[in-house]
Amino acid sequence: MQTLAQFEVYEPGPLTVIGFGTRDTLDQFDLAACRNDVFDLIRDHRCQMLAIDLTGIRIIPSGLLGLLVSVHQQEISVCLFNPSEDLREVLQITKLDRLFPCYRVAA
Any bridge partners for residue 102, and if so which? Predict the structure, then answer.
């Protein structure tokens, strides 16, 4: 598993899976560094689908939602695993649940 400054890479490749390890908050989140790392990861591994494990994360910064939209605009599928109820509500209100399918998986 590769660890970058803002997230961990659980599985690189055409289906790339990233997550935030044991964090429960992203209050010290550096969006610019994350953006660069995500797009480098996508390019380097020819990623076609980005899966994000949100286990334990209650809410994410709005800038991260914007980053996910940018990834989607590059014709990369984005899916979210184990988003909190709060995050699911935000996704429904913003209609981003139509872009990012959400799944519950056992930890």
Answer: 80
